[in-house]
Amino acid sequence: MKITVKKGLDLNIAGAATVPSDSGAVSLVAPRRIAIVPDDFVGLTPKLDVKEGDSVMIGSPLLHDKVNTSLKVVSPVCGTVTAVVRGLRRKIERVELVPDSGSAAVKFDTAGDVRTLLMESGLWAMMRQRPYDVVPDPSSDPRDIFVTAFDSAPLAPVLTFGMQNASAELDAGIKALAGLTRGKVYIGVRSQSDIPPVAGAEIVEVAGPHPAGNAGVQIAAIAPVNKGETVWTLDIVTLRKIGHLMINGSVDPGVIVALTGGEVETPHYVATVPGCDMESIIGAGLKSLKDAHHRRVISGNVLTGQNVGMEGFLRWPYRQVTVIPEGDDVDEFLGWANPGAGKMSVKRSFIGHFLSGKKFNPDARIKGGRRAMILSGEYDRVLPMDILGEYLVKAIIAKDIDKMEQLGIYEVAPEDFALPEYVDTSKLELQKIVREGLDYVRKELA
User: Fold this and answer.
1) CB-CB neighbours of 86 under 10 Å
2) pTM of the model
3) In this model, does residue 187 exceed pLDDT 70?
């Protein structure tokens, strides 16, 4: 099957990481600190399995879901729990650990039920379901399962890097997932992808600009989600981890991260673990440490990532760190309205719009003012889904569930509105609005 995405937008941003010649050329980063953030696992109501001072192994449970107690989030390292940080009303903000040099890992029984195995090992929490874009309900029966084998976001890493010899793990992962659905397991790839053949999966070649790599876009083109249906999504890296678990009975905690952005001296790939502290990942890799407080450190890409700062951590599900100028020290004539050639824009008012080959180093400023929503069709030019994005956003703001259902709320996730948020003249926080809308519908219809 082949799909061509015609709507979308690729941002020409400087600072892409060069893909190493082989996995052995990737530098290893040993984290000084680790943090697991429950908010990264939307739909999971966290309850602690550890306390400060506890020692853990790779695969030891840190948190479990309040309702489905078998659904757990596990430790990616051997080490000691140093802090459980709480917020308002004692909400668990994060669990911090200090790794040690050990490599002991929990052994799981692979002969039992696959659902239970995935939940106990923490890999279940790394998948998502549509509708609602949450951790899958353990009792759900997915119509299909969609695996994304590439990321089309700005400066995104190559997800298939290092998988040329992973045929056995990918096959084992597909075999495990195929037993959980009555339908098909699809893998969305770019043409001429270097992943090995995967038995039991239907390969879908996807062409076109971002957001071609989004699971929602691929689902909409292959088999859209209707009311009452459930599909699961995950990426190729998680699929490989599932296969590793099925073969070896242990969790593979490693992750390849791309350090990118115009403020990075030499963008490159590093090997570390989820939750690694940003200071360890970035090190002395910035162009200059003199103005470090005028930079934005993002866990993820510039469209959907989270501003974590140098004191933050690598958040799930991101396999990328982007560093760009903050823009709080910029003093220029006419401000954001100055039509300079160095400004990246989709508007024809700026010279940069016509410089298709130029690589830009944009800062984090909004460059405009928030105003009333304008129905101008801007969203439709970059949203390759059969939905009316502007009207759906209005229905979400109005909390009109009937309208939301009619306009496709079950098909979307916040990431699908990242590009519309970028081009939006009104500067609305569309991803936040969509997340609130999904949570509202889920709460009301549960």
Assistant:
1) 11
2) 0.94
3) yes
